[in-house]
Design goal:
By secondary structure, the chain is an alpha/beta fold. The protein contains 5 helices and 16 strands. 14% of the residues lie in helices and 25% in strands.
Length: 297
């Protein structure tokens, strides 16, 4: 971690009208999510019914990424985005955005991000983006939805407030953005949810508890913090145990490199709390010549 005195706050202006965002305009419905092999980090696309990405969540990949000795175009081909597609990030830790400067397409996308105290590299990169907006702090704890034509939706929430102006550092894992993808079932399909928490523990996300209370079945999840053993609580374990009890065979994706310096993932925690879940590590994909794995409804 950089020295606390070197860290700075993301300086982009707040978005004026969240309701004015229409990233799913013309999208009939949602098919699931695509988790890219980016090494240690997260890079996730939400998929429309035709299997094409409609929104990007995180654009990272630090240790063990596949782009270290590759041409710029490889990043654009590996994780296609840009144009009018919205790109959101969970938080400003480098493994959640650092592939974006390696290509061109992500830099052309529209970005919606949390305002956080983070590294000088992140602040400098964000300042060079022409279409970037921050989530207003008065939106913290509120659940927002981008809805497709058939009622399927991407839910998102900034889970906690940034520290005050006198703060020198911030635990970005705990003040970032978490997403979920919901199959509404209005087209005759079975309602369900896929959880995309970034690095935030599941129980810290208010709309996850709402989804559980509404009876949605757990289709799959991307393990928070790449399967780390930190930030686990009894509430985290209880939520996962109770949710998995009403699921069929949920998929669990660990987005991390192999090896990595952080001992990710701690798979036993998920095995104990989601017994029978199908587990997959993105690290195995490269050896199979595959760039991503999907969780589909």
């Amino acid at each position: 971690m950089a020295a606390a005195t070197a860290r700075a706050k993301i300086g982009a202006a707040d978005i004026v009208d969240v309701d004015g965002l229409r990233p799913l305009a013309g999208v009939r419905g949602l098919a699931g999510v695509r988790v890219y092999d980016v090494g240690q980090g997260d890079g996730i696309a939400i998929l429309g019914m035709d299997g094409e990405p409609v929104l990007q969540f995180d654009y990272g990949g630090r240790q063990g990424n596949p782009f270290s000795n590759a041409p710029m175009a490889d990043v654009d081909m590996h994780m296609p985005t840009g144009g009018e597609r919205l790109l959101m990030i969970s938080h400003w830790d480098e493994d959640h955005w650092c592939s974006a400067p390696r290509g061109q397409s992500a830099k052309a996308a529209r970005w919606l991000v949390p305002r956080q105290i983070t590294s000088p590299r992140a602040v400098k990169f964000s300042a060079g983006l022409s279409r970037i907006s921050c989530i207003p702090e008065d939106h913290v704890g509120q659940s927002w939805r981008f809805e497709a034509e058939n009622g399927d939706a991407i839910w998102w929430e900034k889970i906690a407030a940034a520290p005050d102006v006198f703060a020198r550092e911030e635990d970005c894992n705990r003040t970032g953005v978490a997403l979920s993808v919901v199959k509404a079932g209005e087209d005759g399909s079975e309602p369900g949810v896929i959880l995309l928490p970034g690095d935030a523990p599941f129980d810290r996300v208010g709309h996850y508890r709402d989804h559980f209370g509404s009876g949605l079945r757990l289709k799959g999840l991307v393990a928070f913090h790449h399967g780390a053993g930190t930030h686990w609580t009894k509430a985290t374990e209880q939520l996962l145990r109770e949710w998995s009890a009403r699921a069929d065979v949920p998929q669990i994706i660990y987005s991390c490199s192999n090896p990595n310096a952080y001992e990710h993932p701690q798979t036993k925690r998920y095995e104990d709390n989601i017994p029978g879940g199908v587990q997959m590590r993105t690290a195995v994909l490269r050896g199979q010549g595959v760039a991503y794995t999907d969780i589909l409804f």
